[in-house]
Write a structure and sequence with these properties.
Helix content: 40-55%
Mean pLDDT: 97
Strand order of the largest sheet: 3-2-1-4-5-6-7-8
Largest sheet: 8 strands, mixed
Distance between the termini: 39 Å
Number of helices: 8
Bound molecules: NADP nicotinamide-adenine-dinucleotide phosphate
Oligomer: single chain
């Protein structure tokens, strides 16, 4: 795995599987742009990487529970970098982060939809000029096997809310976006794929959900690295992987009309149109 001279951004790399992937990419020689909210956790990761003699990562703090946070992150990255070889959209919150009740983002959107999906959607589009400038380049959307179809009459789940459904809806939205973006990027040299890294890894979001972990971050991290770097993934795009294997997502992901509706809504909510 040789990443010398390559620039990579991984959101949500202050903790969990993102932290593992960031450390591995730094060890491979990449210039790693790390992101999260927690300064102390970012510093501990940067110190670990530096101690091992790798390129010192740069920390870009941003709160993705507001679209302005996502915009500020993209602006900060683009101010420093005209090229981005790899963008891993990994930051996320679990089904019970901040409790079991429904919450909204700074923009008034259902919180899991906002953090897990809308911010990544906006970031991908804002960063695209730098990603295209580095082609062949890759985008990896870290989704989940937990997927729930979107009810377009109540996308913000104002009725009958539960965190599991909200989380799973946001994860399916990421997969639907991946398929659309892959179509849009055909011929550009940029590929985009999504995955379920591993089931119930031992991470903060799993522990705060009261779930007993059954996988390690190494397992999930290696699955992410496979999509990010694997030679066998060159030129392959628009796919969903369960761990190391290509898999089928929820049927709504393959519903062209549903994807069009999601895309139109997302462009409007993020102010991209
Ligand atoms: N754990 C699993 O078993 C599992 C299974 C399937 C899919 N996934 C997916 O894998 C990804 C990583 O999950 P993980 O288990 O590694 O989670 P984690 O350990 O809880 O880490 C989450 C990361 O996201 C960042 N983050 C959370 N909320 C944020 C916000 N509002 N703004 C900016 N950054 C924010 C955190 O940053 P700070 O700590 O700095 O705030 C942290 O770096 C997620 O997309 C998740 O849905 C996980």
């Amino acid at each position: 795995m040789k990443m010398d001279g390559k620039t990579v951004l991984i959101t949500g790399s202050t903790d969990g599987v993102g932290r593992y992937v960031a450390a591995k990419l730094a060890a491979a020689g990449a210039n790693v742009l790390i992101h999260g909210r927690d300064e102390a956790r970012a510093k501990s990761l940067a110190d670990d990487i530096r101690r091992q003699g790798h390129v010192m990562p740069t920390f870009y703090p941003a709160d993705l529970s507001s679209l302005s946070g996502a915009r500020q992150l993209a602006e900060a990255v683009l101010a420093d970098h005209k090229r981005l070889d790899l963008f891993i959209s990994n930051a996320g919150i679990g089904s019970r982060t901040l409790g079991a009740e429904r919450r909204t983002s700074a923009d008034g959107h259902e919180l899991r939809f906002a953090v897990n999906y809308l911010s990544g959607f906006l970031l991908a589009y804002l960063l695209l000029p730098a990603i295209k400038a580095s082609a062949p380049s890759r985008i990896v959307n870290v989704a989940s096997i937990g997927q729930h179809p979107i009810d377009f009459d109540d996308v913000m789940i104002t009725r009958g809310y539960n965190g599991g459904r909200a989380y799973a809806q946001s994860k399916l939205a990421q997969i639907m976006f991946t398929i659309d973006l892959a179509d849009e990027l055909k011929g550009s040299g940029v590929t985009v794929n999504s995955l379920h890294p591993a089931t119930y890894m031992n991470t903060t979001m799993v522990r705060e959900g009261g779930i007993t972990p059954i996988s390690t971050v190494e397992q999930g991290g290696e699955a992410i690295l496979h999509l990010a770097l694997g030679d066998d993934m060159a030129g392959r795009s628009g796919l969903f992987f369960n761990g190391m294997h290509e898999a089928q997502a929820n049927p709504q992901a393959y519903d062209v009309t549903a994807r069009k509706r999601l895309r139109a809504l997302s462009l409007e909510l993020t102010g991209l149109v």
